[in-house]
Structure formats: structure tokens, C-alpha cells
Please model this.
Amino acid sequence: MKRAERLHALSEMLRRSGSRGCSAERLAREFSVSVRTVKRDLAALERSGAPVWSRPGPGGGYGLAIGASLPPVTLSPAQAVALMAAVSAAQEAPYADLARAGIHKILDALDPRTRARADELAGRVWVDAMPSPSRAVRSALEEAMTEQRVVRIRYTSSDGTTTARDVEPVLFASASGQWYLVAWCRLRDAMRWFTVSRIERASVTATACGSHTVEEVGRPPANARPVHGRAS
Model:
């Protein structure tokens, strides 16, 4: 199980445990990892904004604060299908796997009549999705971006030159139908745009990124905008 998937499953287990919580040892057994890894995952969840609580001592453990579950959702069938279509048509986008999991959560929260109408309408929308990059590569890049860790990549440029290099992820960008990893390249000592589909291998290191910021990338194109989920 990839770390991003484990973090999602971990948060769901904590949510289901309610006020009882779960011990680190039980979580470690559940996911076949060490207690140390579980505690790192819990810290990562907390940094991401999840309301994780801990209770020390015998009988203690970890859990999610009451009220941290998804509130009631009211969507029209067309809105539900719009979400499904958007994710299905962008399988190569960063965090697409997590987006699909989130949409399933939303659909499960719909009332049965709306869900049935959405399912019927979804059958009228076809998507010819382009092949996405390797799941292993995508997972490594997503984890490196989220945790702000240096990622080691094997990259083949447009002229056919293949290099191995350590890069510090700064942002993901979509332009002209391609996804790019914009990162500080330690080999070139400069900011570089890497076409994600040209990254053949990627592995997250234990090294934290430096202080490079989005502002160093420069001004985005006039029609580009961050993915805030808010109307501009």
C-alpha cells in the first residue's frame, strides 16, 4: 500500500474508532508497518489539518475529533456527474486517486434517489482518457510534494538524454495538455520543468526540501490559476 493510500485508510480507521480511539500498536498491526511509521503517519495527518487527538498512558491511543466526518451533502445529479467526469478525464492529474476516493465518499452520502439519477446520467457521459503515468511514479511525486521531501528521478528529456537527479518539488502545473513537475534541480542548480510522462522512475528520499518557493518559478500564464476549489 502506497503511503498516500495508507494515510487515507488510517484516517478512516480513526474515524470509525470514535471516542475509543486506537493504540499505535493496533494501527501498526493493521497496516503491517512499524509503530514508528504509524506515528510519522499520524503526524503527517495532523500537519495536513486532520483533527487528530492523542491520549497518553494505559488504554490511551489516537483518534479523530468528534464532528470530523463529512457533513450532509446536497448535490444535483448533474453536479455529481460533473465531479465524476472531471476526475475520469484527468487520470494523469496529481492526487487523482485520492480525488476518486473523495468522490466515492460524496456519492455514498447522497440520498438513494439522487444517486440513482446520477448513475443513469453518468452512463450518458463517455471519457476517452489518455494513458496515465506509472502509478508508482505518480505516488512518489505526490508524496514528495505533500511532505516536501527531495525526490530522486530518472528523467528522459525531449532530445533523448536520460539523467538521474535529485529535485525539490515546488508545484505541479498543467499546460498544453501536459502535466509538469516544477522543481529545484540539484543537478543543474536551477528551477526546471519536468514533463511527468518523461519521468521513468521516482523515489522519495528522507531529505527535506530547502526554502524554494512558488514565487521563484515566476509569474504564471495569464489563464493559469491555483486549484483552490473556489470561484475566481
